[in-house]
Write a structure and sequence with these properties.
mainly alpha; two-stranded antiparallel ribbon; about 5% strand
């Protein structure tokens, strides 16, 4: 064999081995070292790293949520590669944000730690996908699809609603412009949960004096927030305005629960703040003053076992409240469980009250 050819044949594998070892060593270092020496050393991502350091997820490594260059095959390699290219080009990015596709990839990682919450969310109405929101024939025929649909369904989509579904009318038939979006969740975890929001991880109490454990606990502050797609920013629930609601000219008593402020960003009344209009589900009647969470589970929205939390087995009417003529027991009932009042069933009492008011 030609000596020069032999040298080449030996050199090429040696170079490949050295490069592989070098890449492997660097890759291992990058994914195990502190973010201070890796991610946050790049000025573009500094803001995100700083916010993560003050959040409840501060002890998690970036890769736990965002993955690595090899965690999602060629897709993640291309994505991370473009980050390097943009960094080398010194491309100015004022505020780095995940697009919807990247955000949904992070969502999959949520369930590794929050498996119970993820399972509940999956079983509830808030896990609805694009297909069931934007291709709902009954709803689309009654109400024109408009840009504000994305305020609550698809708030992370980068584009207008006309880029999601067509035609934009009440006749149909409707179809998604990108069929791949059909199964994408329209209300992902991040709609209400800002991952890098300020917070403190839960800690064990001081067991030295068990009697004081209750008093040592600090009052929990809601970590919920509402993502505003127009501003592209989260508003903590604590900073959202309290709901002013009216039933005619009477002001409705609304719970001061912070979580309810988040709920009513989507389950909201009309512009006149009239109770029961538009998507409003704020409790009235016998349940006036209660919060959504008094009955609904935070993630599954399930309310099946909620009655027993407040009501005895037999009510003042000598009837099991779960079997009364309300939408709780029967979806076709005219008495919506959110608004039902005693007078809705006790017609004579209703007539007496109306007569008294007139006189």
């Amino acid at each position: 064999m030609n000596r020069k050819l032999k040298t080449v044949l030996l050199t090429i594998p040696a170079i490949l081995i050295v490069c592989t070892l070098a890449f492997g060593s660097f890759y291992t270092y990058w994914n195990t070292a502190s973010p201070d020496k890796t991610c946050s050393s790049c000025h573009e991502i500094g803001k995100s790293v700083n916010s993560q350091a003050q959040s409840s997820h501060r002890y998690l490594h970036c890769k736990e949520c965002h993955g690595t260059a090899l965690s999602n095959g060629l897709h993640s390699m291309k994505e991370k590669g473009m980050m390097v290219v943009n960094h080398v080009k010194n491309k100015k990015v004022e505020n780095i944000k995940l697009n919807e596709e990247q955000l949904l990839e992070v969502l999959i990682n949520c369930k590794r730690c929050h498996s119970s919450e993820y399972a509940k969310w999956t079983s509830g109405g808030h896990s609805v996908d694009y297909e069931h929101v934007f291709l709902n024939t009954k709803h689309n025929s009654a109400e024109q699809i408009n840009y504000d649909c994305l305020r609550c369904h698809g708030m992370f989509f980068e584009g207008n609603v006309s880029d999601v579904v067509e035609p934009m009318n009440i006749k149909g038939p409707w179809k998604l412009k990108d069929a791949k979006m059909a199964t994408n969740p329209a209300i992902p975890c991040m709609a209400c949960h800002q991952i890098h929001q300020d917070g403190t991880p839960k800690a064990r109490p001081d067991y030295a004096d068990p009697k004081t454990i209750f008093y040592q606990k600090k009052t929990a502050i809601s970590k919920l927030g509402f993502y505003d797609r127009h501003e592209k920013v989260y508003f903590p629930a604590t900073e959202l305005p309290a709901l002013n609601l009216w039933a005619g000219e009477r002001k409705v008593k609304v719970s001061d629960d912070i979580i309810l402020r988040n709920c009513v960003q989507c389950h909201a009344p009309n512009a006149h703040h009239q109770a029961g209009t538009a998507d409003d589900r704020t409790p009235r009647g016998v349940h006036e003053g209660l919060s959504c969470t008094a009955c609904h589970d935070a993630h599954s929205n399930d309310a099946k076992n909620s009655c027993a939390s407040c009501h005895p087995a037999i009510s003042n009417c000598k009837i099991d409240v779960t079997k009364m003529n309300t939408s709780y027991a029967d979806a076709t009932s005219p008495n919506n469980i959110h608004f039902v009042a005693c007078a809705d069933c006790h017609k004579e009492e209703k007539r007496r009250i109306v007569s008294t008011m007139r006189n």
